[in-house]
Amino acid sequence: MTKVSPNTEIKINKEHDKIFKLVLENKEALAELLNRQFVLKGKNKIKKEELEEYKTEYITKELNGKQADKVFKIKNKEIYFLIEHQSKIDKNMPNRILEYKFEIKRDVEKKTKGKANPKIIALVIYSGKEKWKVATKIEEVQEKFKGINQEFGEYNLLSGREENKKNLLESNNLILQLLLLEKAETREELYIYLRSIIPKIKKEDLPIIINIAETAYAQKLGREKINEILKNIRKKGDDNMLALVEMMRKQAEEERRIDFGNGRKEGIKTRNKNSE
Description:
The protein is an alpha+beta fold. It contains 10 helices and 4 strands, in the order H-H-E-E-E-H-E-H-H-H-H-H-H-H. The chain has 2 domains: 9-129, 3-Layer(aba) Sandwich (Trna Endonuclease, Chain: A, domain 1); 165-264. A hairpin with a 4-residue loop joins strand 2 (70-74) and strand 3. Helix 5 runs antiparallel to helix 6 (187-197), helix 7 runs antiparallel to helix 9 (223-236) and helix 7 (206-215) packs parallel to helix 10 (239-275).
């Protein structure tokens, strides 16, 4: 059997790529192929006149300036078909496809000024002789974590709005306690929530709650109520904790004084500028 040199093989592969790119411009053949590959029937079938070639402007730095072979758009819809021809196996294909999809998405959003949220469907056409043994999605090559099965681009949601107030009130978790405070709709409700969570706060979390009370809620609740809350927090602490509470209180007061001073200076500058 005659051996083919690496340079000759590269040349042959490039010629094959050119041929496939040319053939992919035949919209009738492409529409038939997509309908067959994705089992599209009835009103879901793609018609050749619906296919528009999408000229992309993106270049992927991470992939040395490579671009997907062809991208087609369904007319009047934000649905895109990314077509990639491969004459040899590329084990990096899941990452490449992901990168292409992100770049196409950015390109579409840039052209539409953020109005479009495209659906991008990828198809790799492989014409090599060896069996294709590469993962078809990024999840297959990612590190696994038992008990959590989340796809790339998917996310879980923890919404304070949807959480039950009673459950949040009873929780000892600092993050859930903060969600409870953010749920407050009135000053009185905020005050009640802050007072109710103090007995449940872990000693090591006290500085965070003090900081939150001083910086985020002091103006909303007023100095009198904040002082009362800090007094209740102090009851929980030992001598070291009391010193820390006092230090943080002074620090917060100093920050407010600096902010007030800067605000006055800016106001004077603005008035002087306007009077010129």
